[in-house]
Amino acid sequence: MTVSQHDYLKKILLAPVYDVAVHSELSAMSRLSQLLGNDIYLKREDQQPVKSFKLRGAYNRLSTLTSAQLESGVIAASAGNHAQGLAFGARKKGIHATIVMPETTPDIKVDAVRRFGGTFVNIVLHGTNFDAASKHAQMLAETQGYTFIPPFDDPDVIAGQGTIARELLEQNPNLDIVFVAIGGGGLAAGIAVYLKQLKPDIRIIGVESEESACFKAAMEAGSIVTLPSVGIFADGVAVKTMGTETFRLCKTLVDETMTVTNDEICAAIKDIFDDTRVIAEPAGAMSIAAIKKYTKQHGIKGKKLGGILCGANINFHTLRYVSERCELGEQKEAVFAVKIPERRGAFKQFCEVLGGKAITEFNYRYANDSDAHIFVGVNLKGGKPEFAELNASLTDQGYDCFDMSDNELAKLHVRHMVGGRPPALLNEVMFTFEFPEHPGALLKFLNTLGERWNITLFHYRNHGAAEGLVLAGFDIPPESREAFDTHLKQLNYQHQDVTQNPAYRFFLS
């Protein structure tokens, strides 16, 4: 039976979430407000006991169960905030909860679930990805009699998240636009179904990561679609398929949807830290990233804009990636490749053309007797227009200049590898891979691909996620490419052929 919007309103008003949750603050972002010329407010769900809004929905769902269901126990599949919220709620209720997590889940998240649930929680590690863990959880629910608690696609979970909107209107009834992150859609659906009934003129903007925009894809298709893959940085919204009920609500009640990049998210994490001294997780910073992007695109001034800091469960090691990328996200830095003549004084001449701009990064490698390839980062005060002027100036001076500021391969891998070229011509083909972080992943890779074809390049990076990012090259004669592709299918790791990527061809090929 479809739940009406009016019934959702009653569910939200009667939700007993404050048995465990707190009324989180609505913090004024004074620094960012001054910078953008609007009044920016941030709903601080990082203040919840589990540092995330997920506690609201999980506990509200638990509160609807019968005594028999509570006695039989509950189960969920999650590697993140939903697991922690359910563990906390189960401990409060004094009931048994089983949490199924992928074997690749970082220890910090497993330990957090165990800490919040104590003796009331049993953690089961199964499979190397969320889909495998979810299937196992649903199998256990059927065979053991547990009640499955979904992370977003459930009316009571949605209503629990909707209590945020109730507080939001009480704290500031004059908001013009609210920006809400969308993963599976539970948060956006709950907030939208409440706000639109009490204040129909308020605009609600759904915000997705550019790497996991399942709502945008569903809206374009007119029905729910499953993305072939999702990015791993903003793991709190890394959902391939949106919920059925959440899509039904969001497609009607969310006024607009937009996407933000990883660099924009990193810049927003820094903005939140500068104003509040709180370190948001990537998904938690998406609303601020969207506010900055939206106000710039639409020239908005003098409005009251609200965002939801939906979580602060960030892996500490992710911060090195955030720090590396936030300047690019704020357009305060540009990185680019330049070919300069290989002669004395060439570097000095190049720096003179830069006109005194601060160099943030410089990577060089001798290429041949006639020229050298360099990877340069420069500090910008005027954003993209300033770099366009610099690019034009370099071109006028006879330099071949290539902007790498939006080239993911260049920023993630190549900038750390500039200079390595094979001593002889090879049939080199370059791939990116996502490696599951569990014992044996590298050995599986080598056993499947590394015996027949020589590995010509290998570079690995991980920023605290469940998958490592790998750039790997192989010497593949054309006549054996079909056999190699067959082995790739057997490997079953997310991968992409990047042989034609200009960052690779300019520095490494």
List keywords for this structure.
globular, 4 domains, 6-stranded mixed sheet, Alpha-Beta Plaits, 4-stranded parallel sheet, 509 residues, Rossmann fold, 20 helices
Please tell me about this protein's structure.
With 509 residues, the protein is of the alpha/beta class. It folds into four domains: 5-52 and 155-327, Rossmann fold (3-Layer(aba) Sandwich); 74-145, Rossmann fold; 331-406, ACT domain (Alpha-Beta Plaits, 2-Layer Sandwich), CATH 3.30.70; 424-507, Biosynthetic Threonine Deaminase, domain 3. It is 42% helix and 21% strand. The protein has 20 helices and 18 strands. It has helices spanning 5-14, 30-36, 54-62, 67-72, 81-93, 107-117, 130-144, 155-171, 186-198, 214-221, 244-253, 262-276, 286-298, 318-329, 346-353, 383-396, 408-412, 441-449, 481-491, 502-507, and strands at residues 26-28, 39-44, 74-77, 97-101, 121-125, 147-148, 177-181, 203-209, 256-260, 304-309, 333-341, 359-366, 371-379, 400-403, 428-436, 455-461, 467-475, 495-497. The strands form four sheets. Strands 1-2-10-7-8-9 form a six-stranded mixed β-sheet, with helices on both faces. A four-stranded parallel β-sheet has the order 5-4-3-6, with helices on both faces. It is globular and about 80 Å long. The termini are far apart. The model has no long low-confidence stretch (mean pLDDT 87).
